[in-house]
């Protein structure tokens, strides 16, 4: 075993210096802490890569300040939330059921079989609709539908007044008599006339388009 002390003589001191320089304990003391091995603590070498706040792929050799990462993350979250709100407020396309015709925001069903007025209204009601109520906005649709021939509409005599099935009054004139007998159900041909409610006629149903519908 090598001695850890030296005599003050010139000869012994020179040999002691050689012994101490070769000693492991002396080597560690003179060079600082031992070099890092594979399982040792992180090196203090200034050239070594620095860790970054966040994912390791974000940066390898340059440190990103924590406040900058948080700021960028906040901006991304805000943009995502704004986009989600805008998309949710976009009008969804309205749809009509199969075999119905869509014009603007309304759906129309043109029957291909004849029914009495009451049976026609019941059929329309079963599909969330009613017999056609002719208003200013539906008159243009009727021209586009290019309907010909007569068909039941949603107009009926209520006591001495003609009313649409939505409860609004009809201010126009209806020929409501046939051979002196009062008629109660309206149909549309070239104009609006009245027929016996048991008469078999084609009909048109109408309702507001709502999407999506089945």
Describe the structure.
By secondary structure, the protein is α+β, with helices and mostly antiparallel strands. The longest helix has 24 residues, at 66-89. It starts with 9 loop residues before the first helix and ends in a 6-residue tail after the last strand. The strands form 2 sheets. Strands 1, 2, 3, 4, 5, 8, 9 and 10 form an 8-stranded mixed beta sheet that branches. It has a two-stranded antiparallel ribbon with strand order 6-7. A hairpin with a 2-residue loop joins strand 1 and strand 2. The chain is rod-shaped, with a radius of gyration of 46 Å. It has helices at residues 10-22, 24-31, 66-89, 117-126, 136-145, and strands at 101-103, 106-110, 130-131, 151-158, 161-164, 177-178, 181-182, 185-188, 192-195, 202-208. Among the domains are: 51-79, no CATH class; 101-208, Mannose-Binding Protein A, Chain A (Roll), CATH 3.10.100.10. The chain contains 5 helices and 10 strands, in the order H-H-H-E-E-H-E-H-E-E-E-E-E-E-E.
